Amino acid sequence: MPDFDVVSLLDHDAPSVGDTAPDFTRPLVNAEFWEDASLSDLADDGPVLLVFHTMAGAFPATYVWNELRDRGVPEDVQAVGVSISSPYEHKSFLEARDVDARLFSDPAAGVAADYDLEHDLDGMTGVTEHRPAVFLLDEDRTVQYRWVADEWPDFPDYEGIEDALDDL
After folding, report:
1. CA 114/CA 112 separation, integer angstroms
2. Domains in the chain: how many in total?
3. What is the pTM of this model?
4. Which residues of 124-149 are buried (b: 16+ CB within 10 A; e: fewer)?
5. Which domain holds residue 140?
6. What does the pLDDT profile of the chain (168 residues) look like in tens digits?
7. Cα angle: 134, vertex 24, 108; to 5 degrees
8. From CA 8, how far away is CA 151, in angstroms rounded?
9. CATH of the domain at 43
10. CB–CB of 29/102 below 8 Å?
């Protein structure tokens, strides 16, 4: 595993279990194309596993999506990511990782701000990315499960995610 400096992240006020997750519209990318889509439209079609991650191709994002791919997400749950990466970067990432998910492109980190998940990168003035976090949402966008990183790098509680998916 690469050698990283561990950074404690600031307190946050991300949505909690029982809260309604904020809606947003951004380009949603799959391995073939992208188009603007809203979180509420996705949730109307069934539960959503919403994964906030570092930029596509960065080690933490690669690890998270490899782990979710290998563990599997039930077919009736939509696995959806959010990061600052462009649609082009997301498309390449999905193809390279063979991940069955779609990824929202949020280059200005506005969704991260709405969820209180901004992470200003040290030594990069004006560059903000998404703090790692996972939310399992039901059809009403009600948060059924939440994990938010307390430090960087930090990785989701995959057993906790599996338990929450089993409880749907």
Report:
1. 5
2. 1
3. 0.92
4. eeeebbbbbbbbbbeeebebbbbbbb
5. 24-162
6. 455 677 777 788 999 999 999 999 999 999 888 999 999 999 999 999 999 999 888 888 999 999 999 999 999 999 999 999 999 999 999 988 888 899 999 999 999 999 999 877 665 556 678 889 999 999 999 999 999 998 878 899 999 999 999 998
7. 85
8. 4
9. 3.40.30.10
10. yes
